[in-house]
Amino acid sequence: MRRTLWILIFNFGLVWAKSGGGVGGFGSFGSPPPLAAPSVGGGGFFGFGVPFFFGGMMGGGFGGLGLLFLLILLFIAFSIVRGLQRASQGGGLGPGAEVARLRLALLYRPEVQTELRSLAERADTQSPEGLAELVGNAVALLLREQPSWRFASFERARGDFTEVEAQFQRWMTEDRGSYTETFHRFGDEREIRPTAPQVDPAGRYLLVSLIVALRGNFPPVTTPLRGSGAREALLALTSATRENLLAAFVSWTPEAQGEALTEDELVSGWPQLDLL
Question: What pLDDT is stored for residue 194 in this prediction?
């Protein structure tokens, strides 16, 4: 209820904005990477064979060897717990995490609007596999439209899982707040609010934003994005797979058929975009 009220209040202040839609979900935020089994070189713990320990315990009760065995077990258990805690924050055993956002403005074509809505409708937004497929399909769609690319921006942030999740939420909220939301799917949530298109004869552009968070790092991207940089950025986002994807969100504006952004709306609403 509070989330819906917040969205309505936010959109009320942006009644001038064009329509927009978005789709995404959380993949494996909060799930630490798999841990390797403790080293047990020599066929037992720290080189001592299991039969050796049990032989000592059977023969002498919980004497010196039995106590040593218990201490080693406690040490291993403590190390595993510490490793889980550190990995869940992206440190220690884990490689950390990174989130990236690419915004791409291209010349408006209604077919692109239609295909983005179709991707959003049929995407599996509740599994890392489905989200990785969503990102891959959106990237493939945009790559086919390369002759229409005009403006773009790319930003990225590294940190532990908590920091990256917070940055993902900030960027997603910023994108959702830049348009009047007419379509939204995130995880198991789904909202559609049809609206009358605000058709402007001077409208020329469609803006697409992709936000992806993954465990590890994205490949290098050449910035500013002139030349091959925008293509590099798009392909870098496809590094997210079912194994490492933490979250993804794809949004576009305008969403209503027939609407397009004017150049003034594009430049004033997203001043960080660079001309390609």
Answer: 86
Clarify whether residues 233 and 131 are in a common domain: yes
DSSP state at residue 238: T
- What is the C-alpha separation between 86 and 162, in angstroms, rounded? 12
Give yes or no for a contact between 25 and 126, defined as CB atoms under 8 angstroms apart.
yes
User: Residue 276: how many CB atoms within 10 A of its CB?
Assistant: 17
Query: Is 163 found in the same domain as 109?
Result: yes
Burial of 18 (0-12, 13-18, 19+ CB in 10 A): buried
The phi and psi torsions of 20 (rounded to 5 degrees) equal: -160, 155
Tokens at residue 3, please? 């989330």
Could you tell me if residue 129 is left (phi over 0), alpha (psi between -120 and 50 degrees) or otherwise beta? Answer: alpha
Q: Domain limits at 102? A: 15-30+95-275
The segments of the chain whose pLDDT lies below 50 read: 1-15, 30-62, 81, 85-94
